[in-house]
Input
Amino acid sequence: MLDLLLPQRCVVCGLGGTQFCSTCLTRLPRIEPPLCERCGTPTAWPVRRCRECAGRRLAFASARAAVLYDDAVRALVAAWKERALRRLAAGAVSVVIEVVPPPKADVVTFIPPDPDRELKRGHHPPRQLAEQLARRWELQLATPLRRRAARRQRGLSRAERRRNVAGVFSAKGAVPRSVVLIDDVFTSGATVNAAASALRKAGARRVEVVTFARVVR
Ligand SMILES: [Zn+2]
Ligand SMILES: [Zn+2]
Output
């Protein structure tokens, strides 16, 4: 609704007449192999574990992301969180479809919103992403995850992030064996790991994480 009242400008470059222009879509920094098979970090050659994930206990089997979290992607994600712009969701979905091979799984689910923040915004990019990806991958969408309020992750160290999200998620009902877990941005992996752990406790045997963007150190 708000879309109609605002002059349309590309959220990345400011070009008029569109929420997100095709040049910026083309330029999004795709993540290409070789990758760490486990955590999805770009590596010099294909590896099964990498410096990022070796020694970490991960509840998910693999993580994949479509684009690197650079300044353009940051602007896109911020605008997408703030306003429910359909063109941004469509752009993000198209790049995930292009870059990430379709997962073999029973269902698609997503990181639920923080209960405090959803009320203010009324829309949730990870849900939009999961709904559209489920359709494109021809998989069912499931919503077993519940989340209670926690401190924001922003500004916390990696160890603090892990502690902050531990126990925030729970899963309701019987969870299928194999689940694709969607989020918008993979930062330290602490959030998706905590949610994957809740899915595993509720019966999932395998959780594959797919995000639109990924922070690479
Ligand atoms: Zn643009
Ligand atoms: Zn790794």
Summary: The domain at 8-31+59-214 is CATH 3.40.50 (Rossmann fold). The mean pLDDT is 92. The chain has one domain: 8-31+59-214. The radius of gyration is 17 Å.
